[in-house]
Amino acid sequence: MPDTLLSSLSSTLNLTTREEIARFLGESEPAVSRGLEFATSAVFDGLHRQTGQSDIMRQVIDLASKAPADMGAAFGAGQPLGNPNSALILGGKKLLSAVLGEGQEATLSTMGRESGLRSTSAATVLALAAQSVLSFIGARVRNDGMTATSLATFLHGEGSAVRGGSAAEFHQQASAAPRVTAPTETVTTRRVEIDPVIAQTVQTEKSVWLWLLPLLLILAGLLLWFLFRPRPATVAEAPAPPPAAAPVPPAAPATPDLGSFVPRQLVDGTMLNIPEHGVEGKLLAFIQDRSQKPNRTSWFDFDRLLFATGSATLEPQSSEQLHNIAAILKAYPATHLTIGGYTDNTGDAAQNLKLSQDRADNVTGELVKLGVARDRLLAKGYGEDHPVGDNATEAGRAQNRRISMLVTQK
Fold it and tell me: Is this model's pTM higher than 0.70 or not?
């Protein structure tokens, strides 16, 4: 079918653009392409389920009229994917909030499983897919005068084509969700006829009350006497104090699922015990893969470093991972690293920049103490720059508070 929302993806985000997105996210181009396909299907299905909501359709038309006409050109113009407030991300997030709402988490989970993207990468790709849908609709608004009503009609016409596509699981999940529609009320008027036999029975029952009423009066008098008879004074007892509430322990910080710990032997004979999915294994794989060249985008985040709140002081629990990284660097003496420090956007930007630099310096200093030559390490604080999560949420802010490594030479 020509010019559908799904077929527009190939022209909205061409191969070159998808490759740039993949390089920025540190993902493969096929994974990004699969993620875009599934994400576009999910956004389209969300729109299709909201066609009965005229206010949402008007909101979509308003967002689409402000969307860039050429997504590829906007991306090439330097719209930063790492900035959650960039035009390429913000517009997509607004559309997702309108059409998916709380279903975004389930969509991201399915999308990551189907495409192989990491959760943070999946969130970025989903926002980009939503923005590409807005760009497509925006072209219809500008060229054909599409309105909220004609958008709903268009979505109804295109629904069956998308549901036959490769992202069927998104539609199965969406169809299981309750459809948002305005409540309706049907008033039915009917005529009630009274059977003469029933009417006669009612008349007969009335005569029973002639002898039953005195008995009820006697019973009512006895009940009143019982309720209001004189009673001996009683001593009021003080109510027992309510049981003290058990103290609620503070929630433990969320930790990533790193898998089981496995032994790894380095080229110099050193034995390490590292988690299956930890950063040590990822750094080792990058160093050992001769086809992987040092670049400016392949950052590796420490996953077991802890700092005191608002401080650059490392907690003792950080020692194990620092020892592992130092051992890897000593086994591969040609490897050089940049240690980057990052914060969320809470508080003063200048103080955040200083805190990120102090933390990067302290990590670098610990590696030097463990035997890594100082001239192989560069510490750099970036403060609030280059967020990988949404600073509007606690989970996103936690992702942005990180220490990362970049291989600059190997």
Answer: no
